[in-house]
Amino acid sequence: MANKRRFDLDSSGCAVAFVLDLTERKRAEEALRESERSLRSVIDGIPGQVAVFAPNGDLEAVNRQIVEYSGRSLEKLKKWGTNGTVHPDDLPHLFEVFTKSIAAGVPYETETRLRRFDGEYRWFDIRGVPLRDDSGRITRWYNLQTEIEDRTQALARLHQMQSDFAHMNRVSMMGELAASLCHEIAQPRTSSICSRRSCVRSRKHSRLSFAMPTEPETSSTASVSN
Predict the structure, then answer these.
(1) Which residue of 40, 51, 85, 211 could cross-link 143, Cys pair, CB 3.0 to 4.6 Å?
(2) Is there a domain that residue 15 lies in?
(3) Does this model's pTM top 0.85?
(4) In DSSP terms, which residues pair with 15 in a beta bridge?
């Protein structure tokens, strides 16, 4: 039994001894340390990045994978909202999703870019779920971060290919339309030229007909006169 003695003086000046039993406090502290060791053992064994938050949203613990990825200690990661851990362009949205979820006590899911130890930001799928006790009170929040950089890049390339294909298709359609218009424009002109040539040939034929001498008449008149 862990005891602690304290001596005070009473009103008459006599020493009075008080014995404080610290056994329960020691047991509680040891239970807390064991719980923390057990928690770290569990989250370190998860194939992903795991963070543990208090009911109010304060960061309490992270697993080894997060430390290795970020290159930062837990104390530095506790300031994730101000030290560049999250990409500046994604921070407002992530903060809004996180704070609303903490206030409402509901799970959340979002995608954001997190800074790696070398300064590169990579895409992660982030999901948070609350842990409740028997009374329904939230005791912790568990946050799972799964890297999706390769998937995000593949989707970006696919969207770019689709955009390029759509552009090429539009250009092809415009080319076909232009060719069709040129044909339609050229067709009446060809007909007009053909008609004009036909008219010229007709006129020439008419001139030749008028210019040819008429054959002499077989003279029935001459035979009569004879």
Answers:
(1) 51
(2) no
(3) no
(4) 9
Rounded CA-CA distance 92/100 in Å is: 12
Which position has the token pair 């990579």? 122
How many of the other CB atoms lie within 10 Å of CB of 66?
A: 21
Block residue for tokens 């002499």: 216
As a 3-state breakdown, the chain gives helix, strand, coil percent values, each rounded to 5, of 50, 25, 25
DSSP 32-49: HHHHHHHHHHHHHTSSSE
Residues 183, 197 share a domain? yes
> Which residues partner with 132 through β-bridges?
138
Q: Is 121 part of a structural domain of the chain?
A: yes
Contact 130, 144 (CB under 8 A): no
Q: What is the pLDDT of residues 11-69, one digit of tens each?
A: 555 544 445 556 777 777 777 677 667 677 778 878 789 999 999 999 999 999 999 99
